[in-house]
Amino acid sequence: MRAIALFLTMAGVAVAQSTSNNSLLISSGDSLHISILDTPEMDQRARVTDAGDVPVQGIANVRVAGMSPADAAAAIKHALVSAHYLNHPQVSVVVDQYATQNVTIIGEVRAPGAYPIATPRPILDVIALGGGLDSVADRNILVERRGDQSHPVRYEVSNDAERAIKEQVLVNPGDTVVVPKAGIIYILGDVNRPGGYAMSDNASQLSMLEALSMAGGAAKTAKLGHTRLLRKADHSDMQISLGDIQKGKQPDFAMAPGDILYVPFSYAKNLFITSSGGITGAASSAAIYAVQ
Fold this sequence. Notes:
- The chain has helices at 2-18, 69-82, 123-129, 161-166, 208-214, 242-246, 267-291, and strands at 31-36, 44-47, 53-54, 62-63, 91-97, 102-107, 113-116, 121-122, 140-145, 148-156, 170-171, 176-179, 184-189, 195-198, 227-231, 236-240, 260-263.
- By secondary structure, the protein is α+β, with helices and mostly antiparallel strands.
- The protein has 3 domains: 2-20 and 100-179, Outer membrane lipoprotein wza fold like (Roll), CATH 3.10.560.10; 31-97, wza like domain (wza like fold, 2-Layer Sandwich); 184-268, Outer membrane lipoprotein wza domain like (Outer membrane lipoprotein wza fold like, Roll).
- A hairpin with a 7-residue loop joins strand 3 and strand 4.
- The protein is rod-shaped, with a radius of gyration of 31 Å.
- The termini are far apart.
């Protein structure tokens, strides 16, 4: 257990180190610490205005919203030089506190909502805040960055634990994590466990035989040769021979979200099974009677 815990810890550190260069972007309300090397009297802390500017001592406001701290430092340096206030300032900008410190988790998690985080955190930690994925969650997750809705980050929750940890992305304060619902297929009719089943594997794909196995397989009284597939995507209705597919005489095929596989009931099989049971039972009773 200690080895596993150490592995998880090291993996989390690796994620943080590998993404440390992707700084959070500054936005209105953030509190900044601005310092200039060898000019301690200009050291100041200021809050970004609603307009996205920050007041800098000795010059007018400087636009910093939507910038990383490094870009904001370069903008302030340019403003100081342009105003002939300093010739070669070495500017540093650090975000003391982000105005938005909630991460929003929506979709197929057990407890969706907004959760406070003060620093970037690995996505598996954030999913855990929402109670983890529910039974119909798709494994392909989107992270919408604060202030950048046009370039969401994609992450796949792999069934391979090592890969899931290694490929984690960081979720920043103010981000939104969207967990979509996996495609649902329906296995109905004369099967052992009829119902709807989520295509929640890594590839979000299921073959017909895999789907049938999730439903417990066809019942003994199923009319395999008259199975029907109703496909929502193109509104098609086709008859398939489930028995031939099970025997390998016809290829298995991929199910699509919204598909309905209907396995009909065979009255002839039911009558045969019932009759066979009755005959067997009668014969057994007669044998017992004869012995007595």
